[in-house]
Structures are given as C-alpha cells and as structure tokens.
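Many introductory courses stop at the sequence. We go one step further.
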Amino acid sequence: MRLSQEQIDGFHRDGFLFPLRVITTGQAAHYLASLEGHEARARQPLQGNMRHKTHLLFTWVDELAHNSNILDAVADVIGPNILLWNTNFFIKEATNPGFVSWHQDSTYWGLDPDEVVTAWVALTDATPDNGYMQFLPGSHKSDQLPHLDTFHRDNLLSRGQEIAVEVDTSKAVGVGLKAGGMSLHHIKLVHGSAPNRSGDRRVGMALRYIPTHVRQTKLRDSAMLVRGVDEFHHFDDEARPQADLDDAAVASHAEAMARQVKALYEGTDKQAFRP
C-alpha cells in the first residue's frame, strides 16, 4: 500500500495517519484466532514478556510484521531500509479498567534520531466504547515532555508513565479502526486511551519500525531487518522464527527481552515486563 503525497504530508504535519486498510477482515480474524488459540492452550491470557517482541516467538506475528502493505506505508514515511525494533500486543479485556495514560513513546526507548513510526494494527474493531487510541495532532513537533512513573496497576504502559505537565486534550482525535485497519504514529506524538467499557476484548498489535541509521543510545540492542539493506549495523540481527515457540525462538526472545527490560526499565529494579 503506497501512500499518496497528501497522506505523507499529513503524517508529517499531524504526527499520525489513519485509517489504512492493510489486511482483510478475514486475515485479522485469523491472527486473532492464532492468539486466542495459544491462550487457550496456555490456559491464560498472553501476558508479561510474551506481549513484547512477540514476532520472535510466533510465525504468524512475524508474517504480519513482514506484510507488504504495512511495509510499503512505513517506507513512505521513514525510507526504504527498515528494521523492526519491537512488537507489542495491546489487549484490553472486556469491562476492564486497563488504560493508557497520555504519553510520548520516546520517553524511555533510547532511540536516536526520533525517526520512529508505530504501525498499530487492529485485530478487533477499535471504538470509543472499547478504548480506542486518541492522538493530539501536531504534538510530535514539541520537545520531549517530562513524564512521571506511576506503575499504576491498571496502566498498560511499562512504567505506568504519564506526562507530568498540563496537556490540552480538547483537540484529541479518536482513532476508530475496523479489524484489519491500521494507524501510523510518530514516536513523539502525545497519545493515550481510556478503559474498555464494552463486552468484548479489544486487541491491537503495535509494530515499531525504524530506519537503519537510527541508534539505541542505552545499550547494544537487537532488531530485525524487514526491508532493504542495513549498512550501519547499529543493532544485532534477530532471526525469524521457524516454528511457534520452538527452542530457538524461545531462546532468541529471552535474549532480546533481557536487553529490552534493561533499556526500558533503566533506573529501576524491574527484571521483567509487568503481567
């Protein structure tokens, strides 16, 4: 899916772009069934470290991360040479208090420069009732804002971080998506989401893409080349999984997560992502 010049200009102006149809409703249902099939076999929801860098564990997440419609759109805003730095499931269970506070992704990631885009793919519809994302247009052009760590149990963010200064949210844009739809947003865009008040779970996959010249400033990190060439080698290469949860995939994921936890929880005593 190539973007028009108007769409590209809109992304750079507003810091986001949606809706973009990247997979069919049937494909979204297939990926959702794959997730819920794993959860049924594990007898528990996907949680903790398994919600992060999930492309290293499951072939179907890896397949989604390499989807040409997604990568075409991403290439139009960050260029042709693309690394997949992270994948994160954002799951809000039915009638659950879980929320995402107003924040900027750039706060703890350690990536420089800030040419980072999140492709958020809806595996279920994202609506006002089930806690769709909200974006503040143009907020990516501001400086990095101070954040406060709350570690609130209902906050879905790694540190429960929230912007520590007054933010005018009166012009926030609700990001309604149908299953199979996608939004793109910039790493510095101010965004958040409310709890799911509906009777169904809301499931989305966030795919974090970076151009190959971006560096990790905190440590030697890992990432997966998903398009083009990497002439910089700022990240160790991640291998694609050959089978769901096989020994090699689990070992690769554990190694990558150790780096992620060290970077994102820098300054704390945390050893793993929260459940």
